[in-house]
Write the structure tokens for this entry.
Amino acid sequence: MNRTKSYVCTLDPKSTSDMEKLAEIRKTVSTSNKVLSYTYAPRLRVTVRGRRPIEKSVFYNRITGKTAYTGYTSGGGIVGGLANASSLDVYIHEVR
């Protein structure tokens, strides 16, 4: 299921083969950016987003006075960063 045109794959951060695949993706993009530096083509950027938080943080709603658990920040990022993610989504964007 492609979420966007930029979506590449979903990886497991605990798997060594998946982390090697991520390093290979980054190296490939870096190499292609070196080739693209001689042209006017847009550069590429690898973005990694954490999904499915392992531990959630307590959130207190001042208006209702209730507490709840949340795994994401108000900006959409995962609480605790990539270290708290149980899966990683990899995207390759064009940078103009």
